[in-house]
Amino acid sequence: SKSINIEKPHFNPLNDNEKIALIQQYLSIEQPLIILGERDNYEHYITLLGFNTAADEYYIYDSLQKASLYQEAMTTDGNGSFPGNATLKSNELLDFWRGGGMYGLWKWYGLVASF
After folding, report:
1. How would you write the pLDDT of the chain (115 residues) with one tens digit per residue?
2. What is the pTM assigned to this prediction?
3. Which of 14, 32, 35, 83 places its Cα 20 to 30 Å from the Cα of 63?
């Protein structure tokens, strides 16, 4: 109803470098990705919003970031002028994502949004 189209790419058969390349491809055309991973022994979703190849940085929104002291019901923003509220290196991103899924299902699960 909001004119957001969702695509579910098949990330599972790709190797790590191919996964990163595909993520960068989507982000380069301003299509954010939502991926399922594991954080603190729980399944958790994060949203990938941008990247910097030279710095090996991926800018994410993570709802489990620490609460902001200045804005009620908001998370802290560790990214300053970059998108999202946290930054991950590619190996951290892959490790998070690798932990997603249950009972062999939804492994390497991700959604791509286009407007």
Report:
1. 778 889 999 999 999 999 999 999 999 999 999 999 998 889 999 999 999 999 999 999 988 877 766 767 777 777 888 888 899 999 999 999 999 988 778 899 999 988 7
2. 0.88
3. 14
